[in-house]
Amino acid sequence: MLFLFVFPGILALTAIVVFPIIFGFYTSLSRWNWAAGEADSMTFIGLQNYRKILHDAYFWNSIWRTVYFAIGAVGVQFLLGLGCALLLNQRVRGAVLFRPAFMFPLMVSDIVAALMWKMLLNPALGHVNYYLGALGLPTPNWIGDPHIVIPAAILVDTWWQTGFITLILLAGLKSIPEDLLEAARVDGASAWQRLRYVMLPCLSPVIFVALVFRTIACLRVFAIMWGITGGGPARASEVSQLYIYNQGLGRLLKMGYSAGLAIAFSAIIVVIIAVYIRRLGRQLV
């Protein structure tokens, strides 16, 4: 009888998670090119798609761009999030009013944030360059220069998701016993010493969770790049998920190869995150 209670959940899990994984892996072993009129049939070709992936320079370059974006975004967001959490944790008048302001970007979807910032960063009509020019500062071509398009995307993601890290770290700061901080003050510890030797060690498990969640999310970036640049200019912002999308439904309709890329990318991400958690966990937890 107990099995009947969990059977609907098992059935839903199989339909939503297990079946797509199995079908995707089978598709990755097939040639299924919709553009060539093969939408109604797949041809089994074994590991040919994976052999092609090994020599696909565009795919491996997209992996590098994805990692570059993830490192930059997570690093900037953590530093800003920690600073914001420390400020919001202070007992000052009006602090409660600032907390919703930091959380507001989290209520915006990634594609909305991307399209909004695409207008703001427009080199000719955007507000960002207008105010930079008014201050006599350089006005870069944020989304047209291959050298700064990834940093521009990091800027957008930082505006969008810094509140997530702020929220987690603020909750961790609230859980630190006040007795520890008071004892540090009595012993003459400065604000920096209290942060380094009391707050950060107490926050280490919370920091670990925040960094892991944000790293996984940044490695899976898609909508930010798709909405702002579409992968351009000259593939400078074509991250892995965008490249996989373009090989499949987005442009070329090579569904078998796109599925193979997705499987390979997933395996790479699992390895990266496993190593990341292992090394980071030793230091923080």
Word description of this protein:
It is a single chain. The chain is mainly alpha-helical and 285 residues long. The chain has a single domain (57-284), classed as Orthogonal Bundle (MetI-like fold). The protein has twelve helices and two strands. The protein has a two-stranded antiparallel ribbon with strand order 1-2. The longest helix is centred in the first third of the chain and has 32 residues, at 57-88. The protein is globular and about 75 Å long. The two termini are 41 Å apart.
Brief synopsis:
The chain has a single domain (57-284), classed as MetI-like (MetI-like fold). The chain is 72% helix and 1% strand. It is built from twelve helices and two strands.
Average of the residue pLDDT scores: 88
> Biggest sheet: strands, sense, closure?
2 strands, antiparallel
CATH class category label: Mainly Alpha
Strand content: under 5%
Kindly report the spatial arrangement of strands forming the biggest sheet: 1-2
Count of helix runs: 12
Per the CATH scheme, the topology name is MetI-like fold
Count of spatially separate domains = 1
Radius of gyration: 23 Å
Which residues form runs of ≥5 with pLDDT under 50? none
CATH superfamily: MetI-like
Shape: globular
The end-to-end distance, rounded to whole angstroms, is 41 Å
Q: What is the level-2 CATH architecture name?
A: Orthogonal Bundle
Structural class by sheet pairing and helices: mainly alpha
H and E order: HEEHHHHHHHHHHH
- Strand tally, please? 2
